Amino acid sequence: MKRQRGAAPEPGCLQAWATENQTLAGRWRVRRRPSAFPPPSQFLFGSAVITGLPAALPVLPVELTVLCNYLLFTVGASDSAIKGEAEEIRQGLLRVLEACGTCGQDLSTEELWQKVLQEATAEELQVPLQQLAALQAAWWLAASRLGSTTGLLRLLSNTEDPGRAHCSESENELLSLLKTWQVPAEASSLPLVQSANNLKEILCTSAAFLQGLQELDAGNFPTALSLLQEATRGFCSKRVLAQIYTCLGCCAQRMGKPQTALQHLKQAFQVDFQCLPALSHTAAVFHELGETDAELQALFLLYEAMGTIISAPASCSPYFLIQTELLVRTPLLASLLRHHHPSEVKYQLARRCLQEGRVADAVEHYLDFMALLQEGLQKQVPLDGGSALPRIPEVFLEAASALEQAGRHHDAITVCKEVISRTTDLIPRMLRVEERLEQPECPSPEAGLADGLLSQKESLCCLTWRVAGYLQQGYAWATLGESKEAVTQFSREHPQVAVSRFVCLSMPESLLPEVEVLKKIRFLALIGRGAQFLELGRHKEALLDFLHGLQISPGKRLILALWKLNRKQEAAAYWQKYSPLARGQSPAGKDGQQEGQGRPFPLYLVSCLKQALFPHSESLARSIQDYLGTTNQDPLC
């Protein structure tokens, strides 16, 4: 006997489907552990049997409940299942319209919901449709489709109470709609594995968190702060709560409230001691406040925690299939909660110690970092493109600078030799620097231009690191009193020659920083070699180097060379022109930035810069002042 279209299945079959759903849902609600997952296919089997039949109103409550449980377990089994559109929800809505005697194949999902809620007025459909709507809202929130979610909740709100007043302008409409959404009680015979009320609470927390992040990204900090604070009062795990407090700390920091930021970050770590991004942001706030001791302590604790954090034991709290963690995944959140690699934190410790003049600590951290590299570069250096680490040769040069300042000159020379040996074969004999506007052999001119510039930039970087290695070796030998060896190092691969090794036809803007660093190295090499010529009594050669250095930056070593050559009038003129002491000013500022113009010197060049700075010799100043007083003339005239 054929079943008529639209007729319900036999009561025995319908009862069997409902009983199977109830059994599986009840078993999960008792255990609530990931290990207790029934395969989603068990629910899918029941759904497949039902959907193989024409849609009928008596069957739809069971069918939609089975569909909801199938979707819940699918999400629980795979985090990626909630990405994209839920085609199963769309098919479920079409089944409802079919049972109501209409269709909607050409409608969007938003339009489908509007039509379904208008057509499906049967009392027995209200509970399963509300449950399905909760899942639809979860899918849309996971895709950051706040407008679609708000529109759906408006429809549900009008269905429940057409005369309900809209929220005020000061209220957040989405949150207001979620809070006032009256989720109907589920039938005991058709239970969900995760109740609609629980889903509603998670949706409220997720909506507040997600909108707070969007406002934070847009720079609307007061609104972001309010929404994130609302999220802390919602239903979520400790892990998510710590993440929300971390975001609150970042928001307060951007608002210029560092003390408030520290309070929120402290709350994050108290809620979840494994929330290491909170420690990282704490260090950044202390850096902003200029509290170096606290900053370094936070970084040290962060590094130590990375080696001691272990997997958390299984939680005794109930496990929910759809959680806030699955619904709030944005690029900003990933950036704020980025877990730094131990090598990044160790490098940050080393760099900050070197910047603050804590040379002994800097040396220890740089050597630890270099030891980490011995375990394998790919294991210790993140390759995701978002790392704060500079290029490895730069780190080695910074380490050499720290060793030099700590008095370990031979160790510094050894490190520089390593940099030189690793970069020598990577530098072409002649580097042609130009923008390649036409490359017919390349399928994509834009791609060819990018590849060409990348190659040029790499070669320039290698050239810069190589000459910087010779420069640091020169200053190390000079400090050891080996003037002849220092002159040799300053003269080998002399920066004047190095700069001339590339032909610059049309300098791409992206290469300007490397060229400027090369110019700074040339300046420091000329000053360093000139100083050693003075030590060797080769005053004319020293004067020539100082004059060449004068073309790059105002030089003060030139004054000493002129004075020793008995060209006192010229020395006095340069002294009055370039020496801050002659003009009643203080010496060069931190890191000697007045000595060189343009961008700041790279950290690995700062120690060389300090040695190259004019010594501001009081005896020389007195001698020049006495000379000016004796001659009673203005040398600048």
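That was protein one. Protein two is written in the same sequence-then-structure order:
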Amino acid sequence: GDLLSSLLQSPSAAKLLNQPIPILDTESEYICSLALECLAHLFSWIPLSTSITPSLLTTIFHFARFGCDTRVRKMSSVNGSSQNSVLGQERGRLGVLAMSCINELMSKNCVPMEFEEYLLRMFQQTFYLLQKITKENNAHTVKSRLEELDESYIEKFTDFLRLFVSVHLRRIESYSQFPVVEFLALLFKYTFHQPTHEGYFSCLDIWTLFLDYLTSKIKSRLADKEAVLNRLLLCFLCGDRYEDALVLLLTEVLNRIQFRYNQAQLEELDDETLDDDQQTEWQRYLRQSLEVVAKVMELLPTHAFSTLFPVLQDNLEVYLGLQQFVVTSGTGHRLNITAENDCRRLHCSLRDLSSLLQAVGRLAEYFTGDVFAARFNDALTVVERLVKVTLYGSQIKLYNIETAVPSVLKPDLIDVHAQSLAALQAYAHWLAQFYSEVHRQNPEQFISLVSTALEAITPLISSKVQEKLLLSACHLLVSLATTVRPVFLISIPAVQKVFNRITDTSAQRLPDKAQVLVCRALSNVLLLPWPNLPESEQQWAVRSTNHASLISALTREYRQLKSNAILPQRKVQLEDS
């Protein structure tokens, strides 16, 4: 530590951060890098103690500034010489090494009482660095500044922010000297100006950690909820209320998943190659974004719903309005939208609708349980809309329609239809709770919802329907038969059609996955007890007979196999063994 300080030739540690970054010769830079590497190694195993002095911390943070000094990189690129370029890289490396030291200290969860003041000092200095990195002026936007910094430095700095929020925020937010509000404002800027997708993913993880922290703190201190919220998030960007801040975060995340606002970046995402988690880059991007949306919904359900639903409605209107452009052609039906601009806009709208349907489905859990009655109207609005959309898609068969750009628009139309079914499936537990509330009185609205949903499903239970859409319909059928399972389900004509379709040996067999799901659904309709009814009203005798008939029909061909076609094979196997 003394060696580093002497190389910087600083007369006062307190004033160090405000001084210009010194010019070091090659030998000094080499010695500094070795010293920082040693410190990082030491910090990885020694406990936090008084050996780590304020002066040492200040010196390390001063070196961390080397990584966010864009002037050095500019000078080396302008001067063009390889020597200048190497010097610029070395100075940047000092910043990376310094951040490694800081992160080793940050990763320690066991912090002695006497060290908490040092932590506060560290965060104050980090706040200064974050201000420097996200500062805008005539020559720089925040994004252009971040683009000019070394990627390794940005990664280390993001790691620091993650450690701060996950490990130490609970210690620091009570200190009046630490500007929590301003810190969150800078984190917001830092997040939404990331130059790479990976950087943005990492920042979303930080927000997820922060929202988890906030949720757990509220749950543990419900009596003091308002005080906690106001202290943590009082107007960190605009307005003067906590709710406005989180809604602003929600709005920005929603904008980032929509082609309408973020087309250039979204089109860069790979939607074909699967990673180790069996998801594409696009699916990962969407999933992480929706996790933030869901956590804001948990904190502010009314505000989150009023932000999301109007956006969904706008895109639904475009989809529902496509019927007027469907015309009859010689080979079937065609979507009469041919202009290149119109096709591109429709493609973006359909992609956005698919994402927003997934968002609405992700929020289903926040309408059930203790909050069912309080949020009933919002949930009913969503479910009614989803039922309408699924029926619309099945009736006019947009998934089979001819389009001007079949390689683009047809997959879009199939995906929207499949996602509307999946979103409705997510509300199966809400439908089950709805059924338990109304089964003895005025169940007409519930019966209408379930019957209409089944009308949307039935036409899709066909080997001629694309597998993605077919499986979505089958999964919804299983949820209705297993989770909701109303007493009237078996008597609905649409369910009778499915029974007839699956037991008709002359009909073309469904793909194996779909066949299994449909059989499971039909079996559950007959086997599982009806909710809200006593044992005496379960009609087990009739249902048992019907189930036996179903199994008999499903196994007819198997049972008709001749025994002499099987026995020789068994005999050969026995001889071989």
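Residues 7-14, 75-80, 230-241 have pLDDT under 50 and may be disordered. Keep this in mind for the problem set.
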